[in-house]
Amino acid sequence: MAKEIIPIQFNGQGGIEYKGWATPSDQRHDDGYPRSYHVVLNQVYFGNLSLDRGKWIADEPRPRDLIVAVGACLDNLHASVRNIG
Question: Is residue 33 assigned to a domain?
Answer without folding.
Answer: yes
